[in-house]
Predict the structure.
Amino acid sequence: MRRGAGNPRLGRVSEHDFLSANAALAATEVLDVAAMQLLFKVECSGEDFYSELADRVGNDEAAVLLRRNGREEVGHARRIQRAIGIKLGRPFEPTGELLERFDIPLPATVGPDLFPIIIEAEVQGDAGYQRWADAEPDPEVARLLRLNGREETIHADRAREALALLQAGQPSDQPS
Ligand SMILES: [Fe+2]
Ligand SMILES: [Fe+2]
């Protein structure tokens, strides 16, 4: 298929930003090749999201956990790249706008408030992957989708751990 060609409900890759792409994918029931291409870009951008988050939390231990999530998002993109190749019947090499990452809209500092949203997004990320896998006729593609999904739940767990570290390190009322 032509790169950038759209799935009418999903829109073109070029029409999206990080948040709209995540929202469009969350509403996608069947993961076709166009949706997989957008997902590839979202997963790559997930590394930037976690890395920028890690830079802003002001806690080294939490940052290590967040960067680990980020590295695995790139692994998810690689699995999606393989899945696209299986669907197309030939190796798929992303080019152009698929390799460009989305800008990540984060404030200069990030406190604990954002974490429940991230944790929920990761939990929903797993559920979405399992739904796509259920609807996927190719067993190898389904397997790759389920592997990604399981790791999104691990990401939710790490984000919970990071949140606990931030809360433990927050200035408190205790006398110094
Ligand atoms: Fe992911
Ligand atoms: Fe994740």
Notes: The CA atoms of residues 19 and 77 lie 17 Å apart.
